[in-house]
Amino acid sequence: MLVIKVEIWPGGDASRAKEIGRAGVANVTHLAEDSDYLVVASSDLGESEAMVLDHNRADGFWKLASEVCRAAATPKAKLTSSKGLAKVPKELTHGVPIVRDSMFKDGEC
User: What CA–CA distance (Å, rounded) separates 54 from 36?
Assistant: First the structure.
């Protein structure tokens, strides 16, 4: 599991750091080359769930972090893809939205 934590450091002072968000990211495809991830994101606005599908693990964790950011920002969106949902077992999606990297422009997060 990957955990992404977002903090504000007022004036760059780490001693005054305040966490404003966190995302737990779980690989649900047994570390496949192209993996699917369940994202649970939380902030002072609440908690949400989404899926990131077909992330190529060779692209590294920064690319995954970008995809997680997009998923956390659009958890209630009704997104579809021509690839369908076949890679994610139905019992693991819990009805959460599906996010694919191809649905966003580069750098959008």
Answer: 5
Three-state DSSP at 3 gives strand
pTM (predicted TM-score) = 0.69
Sign of the dihedral through C-alpha 30, 102, 66, 56: positive
d(CA 34, CA 9): 35
Task: Express the helix, strand and coil content of the chain in percent, nearest 5 each.
Answer: 25, 40, 35
Task: Write out the E strands in 1-109.
Answer: 2-8, 18-27, 34-43, 46-56, 98-100
The dihedral region occupied by 102, where left means phi > 0, alpha psi between -120 and 50, and beta the remainder, is alpha
Q: Give tens-digit pLDDT for 60-105.
A: 999 999 999 888 887 654 333 334 333 444 455 555 555 554 444 4
pLDDT of residue 75: 61
Cα 48 off chain centre by: 10
What ranges in 5-89 are assigned the alpha helix state H?
A: 61-73
